[in-house]
Write a structure and sequence with these properties.
heterodimer, A: 292 residues, mainly alpha, B: 299 residues, MetI-like fold, 11 helices
């Protein structure tokens, strides 16, 4: 009996396992292998060389403290990560708090949470280009500012800039913070908050010493999501940055377009290693499986 | 009973309202601007109201085959939805028992969710490129004329493209199933078996009706994620293009509201799917509340 039921589990899990094997595990393995291959302008061939990696980091350590291209690209991407993380966390936490502690009926909570989630099911590219009529030179914001006389010239840094990339990242990814934090927060026993209050804790003390520690798993999951999305991004940075801002993902994409596959693969391995270190640091805070 | 709302409530409610405006405002702007008159441009003011840009869209923008891309996205999305539902439910059932490799499979799914898409996309592209070289080498080694004459590539919408999408939708499907089965009371199923139901009957008439809303949720994720997918598809579609890829290419070349019209069409399809699923789930939940579970009534 036990044996046959294990067999059942195997064939039930088989389709999913097969897809992950063919379209996730093997591709990652292929990337690792190809990152040691040689390439010419039109072909790639098996080898075991380290020059793809040394090319990425050429001069990076000798010319310190000035940054090589790779380091400055990583630094720029990490700055985006930090900014997006801080903003989505602050907004996501506030929204989740409102839904859990201030909205009284479950139906209303579900409706409002859905309202936050629906845009996630629509196209990211469209949500990006929809900023153009607002932020462009002749966009609504510039028109408005000029009409009230706050500025005589259109502000140029609103679109195709660091600002617009940041705005789009927050616009697209706050939902990844809201949902996990909401999930953690909804499980908090409300009497704990009352107990803190009765014991004389101020609102800030309750937030800092009770709420935030209890929401830590949700915060960690949301953070992992947001940080990995921003680390590997090239589409948001491409479209909202007017193809002018560098990112790690964009470097890989450009090298792929030039058919420099081994170099792109080496870059992908370095990116993956960076992301894994970040996740490892965050996941020490949480056991994902317990959260579902 | 109702205590008075605190000032914090009004501050937070205002914050929430502003956030919703921030979420929806821009999209609503381009929905409006897509009905721009023929003389209108990419920004306000509206110069009349017309369907001009939708007509333009269906006549084709330059050399880009929008109808083809739309059709590719639609058929791929449907196949992805079906496969995601079937594989996720099966895997969800499997995970109710402990089996060797369960932890590995779970963490692989999580990894597939958070490994940057550009990396997965590049990996799939390389995998198929190497497979192509392999097939060609095979053709040369055994002088297979069919390969010389007909073979170009193994990459395509329903090979590498489909795989890329599944690597993105499966983790969502599995997580939803996990959430459902963690709250699932196995007593119902055991009762069915005690009454003589075969495993299939117990699944079909007891388990399936109970998890039906979650299945609708998986389908919703499956279709919408595939319909909008771009990061993983970018290197893995071969010669075929999906709608988001086409749309992204258009952002750099098209400077008319036709691109907004395409945005409106795409969003309308997404919203139709979302609306349908949410309505079905709501109706099922209501009916359940009225009648109790209808599990088992089909026998």
């Amino acid at each position: 009996m036990a044996k046959s039921s294990t067999k059942t589990s195997y064939w039930q899990a088989a389709p999913m396992a097969l897809v992950f094997l063919l379209f996730f595990a093997v591709p990652l393995g292929v990337i690792l292998i190809v990152s040691f291959w040689k390439y010419t302008q039109y072909s790639i061939s098996p080898a075991f060389i380290f020059s793809n990696y040394t090319d990425i980091f050429s001069g990076c350590f000798t010319q310190l403290p000035s940054l090589c291209t790779t380091f400055s690209t990583y630094l720029q991407t990490l700055i985006f990560c930090a900014e997006v993380w801080a903003l989505t966390l602050a907004i996501g936490f506030t929204i989740a708090y409102f839904l859990v502690f201030e909205v009284r009926t479950t139906t209303m909570q579900v409706v409002l949470a859905l309202l936050c989630t629906i845009p996630f099911w629509t196209s990211n590219v469209i949500r990006m280009i929809s900023w153009i009529p607002l932020l462009g030179r002749n966009g609504l914001i510039n028109q408005g500012l000029q009409d009230v006389g706050l500025t005589s010239h259109p502000i140029e840094w609103l679109l195709y800039s660091h600002f617009s990339v940041l705005l789009a990242f927050v616009h697209l990814n706050t939902v990844f913070m809201i949902i996990p934090i909401l999930n953690s927060m909804a499980r908090i026993d409300k009497s704990l908050i009352e107990a803190a209050h009765d014991a004389g804790a101020s609102a800030w003390q309750t937030l800092w010493n009770v709420l935030i520690p209890l929401c830590k798993p949700g915060i960690a999951i949301g953070s992992i999501f947001v940080i990995t999305v921003v680390m590997g991004d090239y589409i948001t940075i491409g479209i909202m940055g007017g193809q002018q801002i560098a990112s790690v993902g964009k470097v890989i994409q450009v090298q792929t377009n030039f058919l420099q596959f081994p170099l792109a693969a080496a870059n992908a391995v370095v990116l993956l290693a960076t992301v894994l270190v970040l996740i490892w640091a965050l996941s020490r805070l949480v056991d994902i499986r317990k959260e579902l | 009973m109702h205590e008075r709302r605190s000032p914090a409530f009004f501050a937070l409610a205002l914050f929430f309202a502003l956030f919703v405006v921030f979420l929806y405002g821009p999209t609503i702007t381009i929905l409006i601007l897509s009905f721009q008159g023929p003389q209108g441009g990419l920004t306000f003011p509206m110069r009349g109201v017309s369907l001009h840009w939708f007509r333009q869209l269906f006549q084709g923008i330059g050399v880009v085959d929008i109808g083809g891309a739309l059709w590719n996205s639609l058929k791929l999305g449907i196949v992805v939805t079906i496969l995601t539902v079937v594989a996720s439910v099966m895997a969800g059932l499997a995970f109710r028992r402990n089996f060797r490799g369960a932890t590995l499979l779970f963490y692989t799914a999580i990894a597939s969710l958070i490994v940057p898409s550009i990396v997965v996309s590049l990996g799939i592209a390389l995998e198929f490129r190497i497979a192509d070289d392999g097939v060609k080498a095979l053709g040369d080694a055994y002088s297979i004329e069919w390969i010389w004459d007909n073979f170009t590539t193994t990459m395509g919408l329903f090979t590498s493209g489909l795989g890329a999408h599944l690597s993105w939708t499966f983790p969502f499907g599995l997580l939803i199933m996990f959430a459902v089965f963690n709250r699932f009371n196995p007593a119902f199923e055991e009762a069915a078996r005690d009454l003589g139901a075969t495993p299939w009957q117990a699944f079909r008439h007891v388990v399936l009706p109970i998890i039906a809303p979650a299945i609708a949720g998986v389908a919703l994720f499956g279709f919408t994620l595939s319909w909008d997918e771009i990061a993983r598809s970018s290197q893995a579609m071969g010669a075929d293009n999906t709608l988001p890829i086409t749309l992204r290419a258009l952002t750099t070349t098209v400077t008319t509201p036709a691109i907004y019209a395409l945005g409106t069409v795409t969003t309308a399809i997404s919203l139709t799917v979302i609306g349908t699923v949410l309505t079905v789930v709501t109706i099922v939940q209501r009916r359940r509340r009225r009648h109790g579970s209808d599990a088992g009534k089909g026998v």
